[in-house]
Write a structure and sequence with these properties.
With 495 residues, this protein is of the alpha+beta class. It folds into three domains: 1-164, no CATH class; 166-305, GAF domain (Beta-Lactamase), CATH 3.30.450; 324-493, Alpha-Beta Plaits (2-Layer Sandwich), CATH 3.30.70. It is built from twelve helices and eleven strands. The strands form two sheets. A six-stranded mixed sheet has the order 7-8-6-9-10-11, with helices on both faces. A five-stranded antiparallel sheet has the order 2-1-5-4-3. A hairpin with a 6-residue loop joins strand 1 and strand 2. The longest helix is centred in the first third of the chain and has 55 residues, at 55-109. The two termini are 58 Å apart.
Length: 495
């Protein structure tokens, strides 16, 4: 049985009721008293005229008036007592509701679940309670989302720092094992990497807290996740669309997640997690597995490209990106090894960077460069290459991207830059971009960079903060020799 709460309006009306009744009684008594006094006055006049007015009669009328006065005073006291009691009741009612609301907020702030205090009542107190609960629920939802984001950010930072401290592949793979133990504790997980011939996969790391899932895939492109180049999740090995290599294992029915590992635009392995079907991998853990694949792939690529003694010489010290020389070498190598695919090369330049340096100081300029570099690293795909070519100029290589794909990727980068600039607290800035596409293999990336640089300056002439693409660039030589007026350029304004 539901108990209906007394509303504030009902309590106030109950408080006013005695006052209304008392007012009506006063009016009635006053009217009756005036009538009675009139009758007594006429009666006294008649008795005085007849000579019959005596002291006894006067005393009788005086006693009647005193009784009426005493009755009025008693009525006033009764009215005051009733009004005081009702006022105290209303006060206690309001105080109780407000105390319940305050207790609800205190419990919510402490992270504990408490029942609703609003109910289905009406009136300002119930409306206030519902509004407070709605705000509390929204704040709690945001706090949970912020906490999860902070957990992911903290894991991302720790993983990057751990990998930055490694000088060999063995050390990087040891970081993978520790990361797997943290992300999917007690769940079978392993990292499979291609050998030097890129023909076979071998287990290079596994979760130390559980037996390895022992994926039977042996060839690089026999893995569906590697072929598709994206994370695959299988809810049950018995499902029709499950990976056939999940079936028939000793562990029985399994659920699995497979995340490809990419190095310099090439897929070199996969992170494979396979556990009991009743213990699926949570979405947040899948995100962390993708972070592991991204950062480990990038680190392995760096370690395979440069020896530990060459690492600092080939890296820009401020942004920790590849410098001009290492970017050019890596981009040329990737573009020459990947055949038959579209490849996009972009040049990016921070707008009015000299003005930013002159007005806010070089420290603010360095912060802007580091922020932009961080956004570049986190916004692009694992196989994309990025380098600082000098000053405020950056280069990108996007393997497997045509003009449309490159434009979409740079639009996402633009959105991430706008959000990052809004959060970082420094002076705002934008970037201009020039993009050129070609079909691999390409022996030398330099002509593409030169053409992208020309398109970058075209973006500057169009007012900055925009992207200029060259969608009709089947080869560098033809595009480099065509007049600028004949180039089919598409200008995309960046809001």
């Amino acid at each position: 049985m539901t108990t209906r709460r007394t509303t504030l309006q009902g309590a106030l009306l109950t408080t006013l009721a005695p006052m209304v009744v008392f007012t009506i009684l006063i009016l009635v008594v006053t009217g009756a008293l005036f009538g009675e006094i009139g009758s007594w006055t006429q009666m006294l006049g008649e008795e005085a005229a007849r000579g019959q007015l005596g002291q006894a009669r006067i005393d009788e009328i005086g006693d009647a008036l005193r009784r009426i006065w005493i009755s009025c005073v008693l009525g006033l006291f009764v009215f005051g007592a009733i009004t005081s009691l009702l006022t105290s009741w209303v006060f206690r009612l309001v105080r109780h509701r407000l105390q319940a609301l305050a207790h609800f907020l205190e419990e919510r702030m402490a992270g504990r679940d408490v029942p609703s205090v609003a109910g289905d009542g009406v009136g300002p107190l119930a409306t206030l309670a519902r509004a407070v609960e709605a705000v509390s629920d929204e704040i709690r939802t945001r706090d949970v989302a912020r906490a999860l984001e902070e957990v992911s950010s903290r894991f991302d930072r720790q993983l990057q720092r751990a990998l930055d401290l490694t000088d060999s592949e063995d050390e990087a793979l040891e970081v993978v094992e520790r990361a797997l133990a943290q992300v999917v504790p007690d769940v079978p997980a392993e990292a499979l990497l291609a050998d030097s011939s890129r023909a076979h996969l071998r287990r290079c790391a596994s979760n130390p807290g559980a037996p390895a899932p022992a994926c039977p895939v042996s060839h690089l492109y026999s893995c569906a996740a590697i072929r598709r180049g994206t994370t695959l999740r299988f809810d049950s090995s018995e499902n029709l669309d499950a990976c056939p290599r999940l079936r028939g294992r000793e562990a029985g029915v399994l659920t699995a997640v497979c995340t490809p590992l990419n190095v310099m635009g090439r897929t070199i392995g996969v992170l494979h997690v396979a556990g009991p079907v009743e213990q699926p991998v949570e979405p947040r853990a899948i995100g962390h597995l993708e972070l592991i694949a991204t950062h480990v792939g990038a680190r392995l690529g760096m370690l395979r490209t440069l020896s530990s003694s060459q690492l600092q010489a080939h890296t820009d010290p401020l942004t920790e990106l590849m410098n001009r020389r290492s970017f050019g070498e890596a981009a040329s190598r990737v573009a020459s090894e990947v055949a038959g695919q579209s490849c996009a090369v972009a040049m990016l330049d921070l707008d009015h960077f000299k003005r930013l340096n002159d007005t806010t100081g070089h420290e603010a300029g360095d912060r802007a460069l580091k922020l932009f570099a961080s956004i570049l690293k986190t916004s692009l795909r694992p196989g994309d290459l990025v380098g600082r070519l000098g000053g405020e100029e950056f280069g990108l290589l996007l393997p497997g991207c045509d003009a449309g794909g490159a434009q979409a990727a740079l639009e996402r980068l633009r959105a991430a830059l706008a959000q990052g600039v809004e959060r970082y607290g420094g002076p705002p800035f934008t970037c201009s971009v020039g993009v050129v596409t070609a079909t691999t293999p390409i022996d030398d990336i330099a002509p593409l960079l030169k053409r992208a640089d020309e398109l970058l300056y075209e973006a500057k002439r169009h007012g900055r903060n925009c992207i200029v693409t060259d969608a009709d660039a089947p080869s560098v030589g033809v595009q480099a020799e065509e007049p600028a007026a004949q180039t089919d350029m598409h200008l995309v304004e960046m809001s």
